[in-house]
Amino acid sequence: MDHLYVDQFGVLTLVETKLIQNPESRRDVIGQIIEYAANARDAWGSVLLRNSASEFWHKKGQDLEDVLQDKFPELDLMEFWRTIESNLRQGRIRLLITADAIRPEVRRTIEYLNNEMQNVEVLGLELRMYGEDEENLIFVPRIIGQSQLIVDRKTSTSSVINWVPELLREAYQKLPSVEGSRLIKALDWALETGGFLRSKSQTPSFGLKYRNGNRFLSFYVDGTVYLMITAERYDGNKDVRDQILRELQSLKLYSEDINPEEVTSGRTSTRLIWELTEKEFDTFLGVLGKYVT
Prior knowledge:
- By secondary structure, the chain is an alpha+beta fold.
- The chain has helices at residues 23-44, 48-59, 64-71, 77-89, 104-116, 148-155, 165-172, 177-193, 238-250, 278-289; strands spanning 3-6, 12-18, 94-99, 121-130, 138-144, 161-163, 196-201, 205-209, 215-220, 225-228, 266-268.
- It folds into 2 domains: 3-155, no CATH class; 161-289.
């Protein structure tokens, strides 16, 4: 594959680029792009995409989570990766054939596939080039296979919401009383302490800010919390990271056998916040309160 992208909805875009100069290559490009679609889940699912991205940035001396958080500070990283996995399971991906010129037979195939495939979006990107001087070349892009009807059909289930406190409270009030009240209590506490961080995701969630402004923990509507375990989140202070983890392990939110040095990002709690007693939950918030901004 030539390029792999992911958009704000957690949908992967798989790109095949060609200089279409003969009938054989025109036929091959369709077969290649369909093969990518058929194998997308096995090739990129089950955290394989995340691991590949982590390795890429590690070779550049940077941490993937830090790069994402720096560029998109309101992005809920755990929810983002969950959404990517969910889209892959449902076969929701985008295929893009890019060429200097897309011939009529290839265009007709793209339009047919895009119309007939339920979750997969198939597009052509024609990049015609004009000019002879390398310093004065003009590229004119044209998208093939896209219509507003198809766009509406294939993106209607992928909307991302900016979860401000008012929307979170409204969503939590629709939950069963025990679950909803526990999440509302966590939300109110986060707002009072100044540690609240908005999330952009498909499902209700919000994060907490560490002293340096980094997101270090997220609350999810299913009752789990996600703790960032990489030391970079805590200005490289492994002692602080280890202390938070130990205190949360004492509440049985996380397994005792976690080795922080082997965790590339973070961990989802093994216990739900509404499984904690009221006293345990107050202790939990007390632990977090020592580290929020």
